[in-house]
Amino acid sequence: MPQVRRRGTYIYFNFTDVGIFGAVVKNGIIKRRAVVSLPPGTLQGGWLQPEASLDLIFESLLTKLKVPRSAQAVLALDGSLVLARKLEIPETIETNQIRGYLFMELGHSIVLPFEEPYFDYTLLEEDGKREIMLYAAPNEALKQYMELFKKKHLRLVAAEPQPLATFFGLDALYEIEADSNLLIWNVNATNHQLIIIEDRVPRLIRSVDTFVSTAWDVEVMEDRLHYRYQLDDENVEYILEEMLLEFSRVLDFYRFSLARDGREIKRVMLTGDFPFQEELVRRFEANFDFVLEQVPDQVDLNGQLMPKAYLPLVGLSTTQKERINLLPDSDVAPKFPLIASLVLLLFGGIIGGYLYWQTDQFADRIETANNQIQIVRTLQSESAQSAKQEVAQLKQTVEGLETTPRPAVPTLERITRYLPERGYILQFAYGADQTVSMNAQFETLDELNGFYRQLLTDTSFTGISLTSVTTKTMNEKAEVVTSTAVDPTTGQEMPTTTITPSDETKTEEPRYIGQFGLTVIPAEVIKGETNQADPEAPKEDGTTEPAADPETNSEEVVPDPANPESGEVVSTEVEEVEGN
Q: Which candidate, 336, 341, 331, 337, places its Cα nearest to that of 156?
């Protein structure tokens, strides 16, 4: 849960793919700081790899910082591991029930790219809606860090998203305005992060890998990392262009999908220890009209000068009204282990004395057991009566559903007419209250926006909303092999198809998946199938009067509202969409 920190002495750590930054902070003042470099492959996108040398390297950093045993530690979690998403919470959910609601809905109505996540949230109250910003990370990655800190006798008390720590650090230096639209571009040696802050609330966090860690020869000089590039210059040109292209994509996505009231990004700040920063700035200024504010190499924090690479640690040490902690409460080490041990010992003594005393009360226990048996029998009788009532209610519900059928197939037919040539419906759910939720895949954002606008203009649907847009990559070249196998039970031959991605290509094409929600007007959908409600309603591709085929078309009689006994035969064939 959001919490206020931090008084006392804490040790802050920021793990990157090329090094580990650490600082000892007492009451918000940095006492000591240090950094160590990591061999290539020790960390990849925030995941700790099984490297034996990591223990020795981390131990050397603790020695430099003079960290005592059982010190309290706080971790800045790599942005590649953290997912940030804005969600709307039902008004019936109380504030103290939000965490329980999220536990129930994660993996069901709230779909994340990893299972059993560790999560936290920030409550938003705006535009008459109850919304939250959800932050989640895979529990396997966090458990790696918790195990490492436990081996070093450190008490890990919090794990915050590194992009949020960067924003807090900039806020401590520049005092970000309350009504500003800010884009923070945090560029490091192996990845870059795009963080959009609107009214001091993160709206989008996008982390993209760039250079591999083996591309750099890293040295530690004083308290900074120095990089020497080891690969060819053509790769640098390509990666810089990809970084600028990703900046443009995030900017367009914010403008067309996230921005409220037509708001625009007013301020762009560049931070991080990227070795090719000068060339990146030159290309940025040649392609964009924004004024790019660059954080200087040395930042001044209350009279203390330090390299800008320590900015996330500065953000971790600042006092904030609300903080995000992705570490689960059950895994936080106790603050007072000696007191906890004494309390457990005391409870153990009390329980032992109680059991010893109970040996003289055996007769009373038998009487108590008999009373409990009578209570159980009473509860069983009441439970049977309750079960009968539930069966009656369920029967009533089923009868109600049978009398009010939902036009699911006509609705799906109508929606698929708006899909582009290579657009697909991935998931489709039709609710009892005439609500539809679906996931659709598109080649480009323009196709996604076009599909969204078409739904908005259809009078058969109301409450159309685009709740989220995610990106995934697809390998377009694959080898398809079909073989046959004999079923040992029936002796019949069964075809087996194997799809293997081709190793000859490394090109991956992006796909955009939009999550939509809408409410169906059943009468309008049924009329729209016969083109009675709107002469310009969308029709199937091809001829306007499809030929009847008794083997492939099914027919349904739709009653005329003016004459209930008459009906018109309409086609309810669902268009077959080619699988992805």
A: 331
